[in-house]
Design goal:
With about 325 residues, the chain is of the alpha/beta class. It has 2 domains: about 220 residues, P-loop containing nucleotide triphosphate hydrolases (Rossmann fold), CATH 3.40.50.300; about 70 residues, 2-Layer Sandwich (Alpha-Beta Plaits). The protein contains 11 helices and 14 strands. Strands 6-7-8-3-9-10 form a 6-stranded mixed β-sheet, with helices on both faces. It has a 4-stranded antiparallel β-sheet with strand order 2-1-4-5. The longest helix is centred in the middle third of the chain and has 16 residues. The protein starts with 7 loop residues before the first strand and ends in a 5-residue tail after the last helix. The structure holds adenosine-5'-triphosphate (ATP) and magnesium ion. Adenosine-5'-triphosphate binds next to strand 2 and helix 1.
Length: about 325
């Protein structure tokens, strides 16, 4: 991501937390920037919610420093909290009141938030057509979006969402994901969003931090995280009319390893650094032998999911 013009909003350094006798968080440090979606990825029990509860002021930290837009969470608690909006557990609403009236109650309690701002956030979350309906009739996805509307009413610099897509169907997930990206990229909000689903993080986040057992294992831009998960070789499946002839044709290509698969299929492995050039050479060699090439399919790279599973098992640092 282009970090130009972006500045750190949430800064966590050397955060420790013990609950009961258990050390839940150990030396956690990371920053989130304005205009970015930062994904906090980890399996159940990793410490995501604990971290988030500390950031939104629901839980005290034991050791370490946290600041929001420069305001220290301990020494300038109210100033820091004024810049944070969040949904930690499922947002609570009055079911017999409309979406609008729920927001209005929150706005009045907060102070300084008028009807114009309510209308603005309602448009942002795409609820303008349903905002007069009772919340009891809202779908889970609509309720989550109303939760986001409430969380951003007071114009926070940092929006914190703990597993916001839990329980949503694919359409609801996509709507919420698009909303989260828009709030970061168009409104410049710094969004911290947790999840245990790596596929979701890939689609939603600019950077991700992976946490397991209370320890932050890696923080990287999403493309680097995926690249770190990718091997240095690419594997393709070729479907041809004559596998034997194709194999012979490819024998002359030094960097290309060939394996016979199902009848009419070849699996080739080539260095990812030269991928396109070698693929063109494969095409040419096969064509020159008069072999008909029906399809070329790339076998999926290892994705974030694989890194994640590996880290969850081993707990080693990557990159
Ligand atoms: N009040 C508490 N007392 C003792 N241990 C706790 C308490 N609250 C949470 N824990 C423990 O802290 C660890 C981290 O929990 P946390 O809820 O932060 O994880 P999480 O990453 O949010 O997991 P999930 O994906 O399940 O939501 C867990 O092992 C949990 O059992
Ligand atoms: Mg949690």
């Amino acid at each position: 991501m282009n970090m130009e013009g972006k500045h750190p909003v949430l800064q966590i350094s050397h955060l420790y937390k013990t609950l009961g006798k258990r050390r839940i968080l150990q030396d956690v440090s990371f920053e989130t920037y304005s205009g970015e979606v930062f994904g906090f990825l980890g399996p159940n029990g990793a410490g995501k919610t604990t971290t988030i509860k500390i950031v939104v002021g629901l839980l005290m930290l034991d050791e370490g420093e946290i600041s929001i837009d420069g305001f220290d969470l301990r020494r300038q608690f109210e100033k820091a909290m004024a810049l944070v909006g969040g949904i930690v557990e499922n947002p609570e609403f009055y079911p017999y009141l409309s979406g609008h009236d729920n927001l209005k109650i929150y706005a009045d309690a907060h102070g300084g938030i008028g009807e114009e701002r309510i209308a603005e956030v309602v448009r942002m979350v795409g609820l303008e057509n349903r905002i007069k309906e009772k919340v009891g009739r809202y779908s889970l996805g609509m309720r989550q979006r109303l939760g986001v509307a409430q969380a951003i009413l007071h114009r926070p610099r940092l929006l914190v969402l703990d597993e916001p897509t839990n329980g949503l169907d694919p359409a609801g997930t996509k709507t919420l994901r698009d909303l989260i990206r828009k709030l970061a990229h168009e409104e410049g909000i710094s969004v911290l969003v947790s999840s245990h689903l790596m596929s979701e993080m890939e689609m939603m986040c600019d950077r991700v931090g992976i946490i397991t057992d209370g320890i932050l294992r890696a923080v990287k831009p999403i493309d680097q995280m995926i690249a770190a998960a990718s091997p240095d070789h690419a594997v393709y499946l070729l479907r041809v009319d004559n596998a034997e002839a194709a194999e012979a044709a490819l024998a002359g290509l030094e960097q290309v390893a060939v394996k016979r698969g199902e009848p009419g299929e070849l699996e080739i492995t080539l260095p990812a650094a030269n991928e396109e050039e070698l693929l063109a050479a494969v095409n040419r060699a096969v064509f020159e032998k008069g072999v008909r090439l029906y399809t070329v399919t790339k076998k999926e790279h290892r994705r974030l999911e694989d890194v994640f599973i590996e880290m969850t098992k081993g707990g080693d640092q990557i990159g």
